[in-house]
# Entry
Amino acid sequence: MELIVFVLASLMVLAGALGVVLRSNPVHAALSLVLTLFGVAVHFVALEAHFLAAVQVIVYAGAIVVLFLFVIMLLGVDKSEDLSIEPFPIQRPVAIVVGAAITGLVVAAVVRARDTIAETDTPLASDGDSNVQLLARNLFSDHVFAFEFTSILLIVAVAGTVVLTRKDKRKVEQ
Amino acid sequence: MSAAMLGAVTPTTTYYLILSALLFGIGAAGLMVRRNPLIMFMCIELMLNAVNLSFVALAVRFGNIDGQTAVFFVLVVAAAEVVVGLGLIISVLKRRPGATADDLAELRG
Amino acid sequence: MLDVIWLIPAFPLVGFLLILLFGRRLGEPRSGYLASAMVLASFVVSVGAYFDLVSMNEEERSHVETLFSWVPVDSLQIDMAFLADPLSITMCLFVTGIGFLIHLFAIGYMHGDPKFSKFFLYLNLFVLSMTLLVLGENLLVTFLGWEGVGTCSYLLISFWHTKDANASAGKKAFVTNRIGDWGFMLAMFLGFQAIGSVSYLDLNLAAESGAIGESTATGIAMLLFVGAVGKSAQLPLYVWLPDAMAGPTPVSALIHAATMVTAGVFLMTRMNPMLFASAPEVSVIIAWVGAITALFAATIAVAQTDIKKVLAFSTVSQLGYMFLAVGSGAFVAAIFHMVTHAFFKALMFLGSGSVIHGMHEEQDMRKMGALRKVMPVTAGTFIIGWLAIAGVPPFAGFWSKDEILLFTLAERGPVLYAIGLITAVLTAFYMTRQVIMVFFGEARWGSHANEAEAAQLDPADADADADDASADATPVETHGAHGEFKPHESPPIMLFPLVVLAGLAMVGGIIQLPSFGFIPSGWRHRLEDWLHPVVRVGEAEITDTSAYDAKGLLALLAIACALAGIAAAVAIYAKKMAEPIEPEILADGWGYDRAISAFMGGPGRKAFDAIAWFDKTIIDGAVNGAATTISKSAGVIRRGQTGNVRNYAGIVGAGVVLLLAWFVIGRGVV
# Structure
């Protein structure tokens, strides 16, 4: 049963990924991305990371992809990009080689190490708490500093973006 | 292949890691191939997701919740990065409509 | 007085500084008196030091006075120190003594010259350098003086530098000296490398005790000899000395007769233990170079017509004798001859200066004659000098030359002895020739009167008469009687030094009388006893040789040669019994000078051009080439900066792949 779920979710993931890479229409690509994200969310659920699955859907699929679509509409870059032409002839072979190589090498490493990894999963040391509680306890005790810094990061990012993209009033007046 | 056999095999950590590697490779190749800045950004998101997947898989394997915490942080940072990045893309593409990554080559040596 | 021997160079230094600052205000003749007084003061200190040394025991006659640490660099410790021992004090005595006399002479000779004070400025600088040279306790102080005298020689030779020939002569002297200096420097470095010191005491002690190996000692000795060859005008570096006659005559007397040119002999004597410790071939080579030079220069002197050129070649020849002595282990004889030569050569140079002055700057001997009637004192003193150099007893030159020839026969054999003897004959011959041409015979200077007047209207004519290019550049003076030219005797200030030097040339031989029966025993070998502590290592011992037994006979042979030379010259030039043989090739100096110029101008020039080409093309090319290579390769690498993000991504990806590959394949993960 779990295998079927795994296979289906993996198909979603890979199909979406290939769609992002291969679709010339950016809107289509964005929607393929959504498919991938959902597939990953399913995997998260299968791996008992419920909170993360929820966050994945809400933040990634719900906010980030929506942002992408907004920008696409704002800028009108929904015109298709012609994928048949490639100004740098070397770029495609390199891309294929690099992509294949990275995948291949990591897979090789993983396969070689499968005996070490593939022991029975150690269940999380839970005192009957749910995944959210465990995660929260870890986050707010061991990693509270990082948590605070990420909140600062978010503020800085927002403020920075506003500043960066503001129209320069002085120039407009001239 | 009988249904029973299919059901008997549980996907181990190795499967997840291999999937994550595949996803990462596709994202990397896509980043190098596509010219549209927005789609390049999406490929980056693919790669991030691949990493998230492997984090969670390994967190489950080793029974350590830190893996999931890491994913949490990756998610937050990815969100912030998207905000800034899209803002920049808007600024640039407003001045040069229809520009692609190839056209933004001012730092040419 | 020994602890203030630093005053010996200090006085001329003070004179130099005072004239430098106030020379123009002092003017003539006060600057001359000041300079002379300084040198006289040095002489007095030298005399005091001499008496101090005499009062000490023979073994202790060596006093080092250290002024300050000059080069304190880790293992290289060199002090500015002076060494007072018999050799250096002897040198100081005659350098400052004769220097003083020449200063006096120059006051009269340079009268009326617009650069009077500058002349004495340089003269004092020269005495300073020379005293540093001889008083130096180590090779570096000596080298300081060595370079100083070379510089002063250049400055003084080209004193009348407005004339091209004079300036060229100065440059020639400097450049030729430099070749010798190279040898000196290498010897210093070698010495330091061998024993870590350049002090004479250390080097000589090490040579004597065998601490310096024979090959090292040979190297040092040969290199020092190269320096000596340059400074003392031996073959092949003698060419600067005849040209140096372009300088004023006091300069020729002081520097190129009595003092600077003897520096080479002094150096070899000072380093005699090094010669002793080196291969025996070195001394033989030195003896041969000296002998050949002596003969070579004597043959050239026979055919010269310029009064100073004869003396110049004569100096080269006599210096050859000194090196012949050095090469035969006769260091005492070399110093002896150096001293007597200083007396009679300075005397004759000053005498020729007096003649030139009285002849209103005429230097061609063919235009002189019968001057003894007009300049009796000059003639008288010059004749004494002539007798001394010809080797007629009891004048000084006979004793010293005889001693050299004795050692040559005893240590080096009959061939070199024969060369020395032939040279002695030639010496007597050309000196007699000069005396006859200048002071005897009929007066040929009547015709000069017409030419002197004509010269005032047409200078080209007078120049064409001069054989050599080194005629003085001062204007022809006609302060004689108007319309009628008459040479005159020189003023007393110029005659006084002549008389003193003549006296010394007469009795100078007394310092080293040989052991003949008729000489009382207390008067024999005084110089040898005096210099014994300095030369005891290298001095050859010949009292048991067959030559020594026959020394009476050899002395008579020497006298006979001298008389033969004189007689031949009298026969040819006075009695006109035969035609004078003055072949063109001898007057031209065997074509040596021309050969050097041709070589340097021709193949030498090509060699230099080749070296310059090598430097420009290959060395510069290598450096520039390195720069060009880098810049070109940078140009190539630069093309990797496309500015395109996707390309960068590709490169990053490739890097990641390599890294992963290394981890997975190379190291093996897990």
